[in-house]
Write a structure and sequence with these properties.
With 391 residues, this protein is of the alpha/beta class. It is built from eleven helices and 14 strands. A hairpin with a 5-residue loop joins strand 1 and strand 2. Helix 8 runs parallel beside helix 11. The two termini are 29 Å apart. Keywords: Pyridoxal phosphate, Transferase. InterPro entries: Aminotrans_V_dom (IPR000192), Cys_dSase-rel_unknwn_funct (IPR010969), Cys_dSase_SufS (IPR010970), Cysteine_dSase (IPR016454), PyrdxlP-dep_Trfase (IPR015424), PyrdxlP-dep_Trfase_major (IPR015421), PyrdxlP-dep_Trfase_small (IPR015422). It is an enzyme of class 2 (transferase). Belongs to the class-V pyridoxal-phosphate-dependent aminotransferase family. Csd subfamily.
Length: 391
C-alpha cells in the first residue's frame, strides 16, 4: 500500500493505465534536472545545454541496448505511446487500396489512426479476432495477408485481458512476407523480454510511464533501419535550421520542438530500476499476484473473470452479475480505498471479443510494488460487495 501525500492509504491496482508508485530514483533524476540543468538539449553549446543533451543521448543508447536494437540514433522520443503509434502508422507511405493486418485486441491508439487512414486514404484494415484464450492461430492470421498488405501491427499484450501475442512468430511471418511489423508494447515494455532484431520488429512503440516505471508524458518509437517515415509534426529540431523542410536524419526528423528532458531523465532512471529488479523477477512477481487474484475471484459467486487461463500479463478484468462495472469501481475507491479502472478501457473491439461490450468490466492490474496482502484485501472487498448485493 502507498501512503499518499494527503494522508490516505490507497491500494493502487491500476498499473495497466500508469505505474505507481514510482521509484525514488525517478523522482530524484527529474528533480535534479529541474534544479541543476533544465536547459534546452541540442539548442546551444553552453554547459547546461550540453548536459541536458548528454542525458538524452544516454537514454537513447540504454533504450536501444535494452530492446535489442543496434541504432540508438533511431530511438525517437515522443510524449506517449499514442503519439509514437500515430507517427509510426501515419508516417508510412500508404496509398488507396493498401491493406493493414491487425487484431481485435488493439487499443484505440492503433485503431483510430487506422480508421482515420481508411477515411482519408482509402486503405483496408482486417481486425482478426484472436480469441480469449492464450492460443493464437498463426495460420489463420497469415491467411489474411494479401498482395496489398503494407503493414502488420499487433499489440504485444492486451490492456484488457492480459493476453500475450506471439510477436516472435508474427515477426517471422512478417519478415518472410517482406511486410513491415509494428509492435505496440504499451503493456509489455519493462515486463516481457523484447529484442527487436531477434523478433524481426521494424517499429516498436511504448510509453515510459507503465512497465518502465518512468513519468507520464514520455514515450518512445524505435524505427528500424529500413523504415522511412514522413513526420506528422514539423518545426525546430535544433540542427539544420537553414532547411525549409524537416531534416532527413533521425532522430531529428521525428523530434520537432524541445524534448522533455526531465521526463526523459526520469525514464532513464525508471529503466535503470527495472534492470536492477530484473524483468524475469518482475514477471514472476506479477504472475504470482495475478494467479492469487484469479483464484480468489473465481471462488466468489456471481463473479466472472476473463482472459487466458495461465500465460497472461498482470491484468484481470471481471464482472459481477447484475452490477454496473463503474459502480463496483466507485465502491472500491470510496469505501475501500482501492484504485481500479472500469469501462471499455479504450479497446471496444477487445470487449466484443470477450463479450462484455454492453457492461464493460472492472480491471485490476498489478505492478512490481504490489503485494499479496493487497490482493487478499481486494478479494475480501469484492466478497463483501457481493454479499451486500446478494446476501
Amino acid at each position: 500500500m502507498k501512503q499518499l501525500n494527503w494522508g490516505v492509504i490507497v491500494i493502487y491496482l491500476d498499473q495497466a493505465a500508469s505505474s505507481f508508485p514510482k521509484p525514488d530514483e525517478v523522482i530524484h533524476a527529474m528533480t535534479e534536472v529541474m534544479t541543476e540543468y533544465a536547459a534546452n538539449p541540442g539548442r546551444g553549446g553552453h554547459a547546461l545545454s550540453m548536459r541536458a543533451g548528454s542525458i538524452i543521448d544516454r537514454t537513447r543508447q540504454e533504450m536501444a541496448t535494452f530492446f535489442g536494437f543496434d541504432h540508438p540514433e533511431r530511438v525517437c522520443f515522443t510524449s506517449n505511446a499514442t503519439a509514437a503509434l500515430n507517427q509510426a502508422i501515419k508516417g508510412l507511405p500508404f496509398e488507396k487500396g493498401d491493406h493493414v493486418l491487425t487484431t481485435s485486441y488493439e487499443h484505440n491508439s492503433v485503431r483510430r489512426p487506422l480508421e482515420y487512414l481508411k477515411k482519408t486514404k482509402g486503405i483496408q484494415v482486417d481486425y482478426v479476432n484472436t480469441g480469449e484464450t492464450e492460443a493464437f492461430d498463426l495460420e489463420a492470421f497469415a491467411k489474411k495477408i494479401t498482395p496489398y498488405t503494407k503493414l502488420i501491427v499487433v499489440s504485444h499484450g492486451s490492456n484488457l485481458t492480459g493476453k500475450i501475442m506471439p510477436i516472435e512468430l508474427i515477426g517471422e511471418l512478417a519478415r518472410e512476407k517482406n511486410i513491415p511489423f509494428l509492435v505496440d508494447a504499451a503493456q509489455t515494455a519493462g515486463i516481457l523480454p523484447i529484442h527487436m532484431t531477434k523478433m524481426n520488429i521494424d517499429l516498436l512503440a511504448f510509453p515510459g510511464h507503465k512497465g518502465l516505471l518512468g513519468p507520464q508524458g514520455t514515450g518512445v518509437l524505435l524505427v528500424g533501419k529500413e523504415i522511412h517515415l514522413t513526420p506528422i509534426h514539423h518545426g525546430g529540431t535544433g540542427s539544420s535550421s537553414e532547411l525549409i523542410d524537416q531534416p532527413d536524419s533521425l532522430p531529428e526528423r521525428l523530434e520537432s520542438g524541445t524534448l522533455n528532458t526531465p521526463g526523459i531523465a526520469g525514464l532513464l532512471a525508471g529503466l535503470t530500476a527495472v534492470k536492477a529488479m530484473g524483468i524475469d523477477s518482475i514477471r514472476a512477481h506479477e504472475k504470482r499476484l495475478t494467479e492469487l487474484l484469479i483464484r480468489g475471484l473465481e471462488n466468489i459467486q456471481f463473479v466472472t473473470t476473463y482472459g487466458p487461463i495461465t500465460d497472461r500479463l498482470g491484468v484481470v478484468p471481471f464482472t459481477i452479475e447484475g452490477i454496473d462495472s463503474h459502480e463496483i469501481a466507485i465502491i472500491l475507491d470510496q469505501h475501500y480505498k482501492i484504485a481500479v479502472r472500469a469501462g471499455l478501457h479504450c479497446t471496444p473491439l477487445g470487449h466484443e471479443t470477450i463479450g462484455t461490450s454492453s457492461q464493460g468490466t472492472v480491471r485490476i492490474s498489478v505492478g512490481p510494488y504490489n503485494t499479496e496482502e493487497e490482493i487478499l484485501k481486494v478479494i475480501e472487498a469484492i466478497e463483501e460487495i457481493v454479499d451486500g448485493y446478494f446476501g
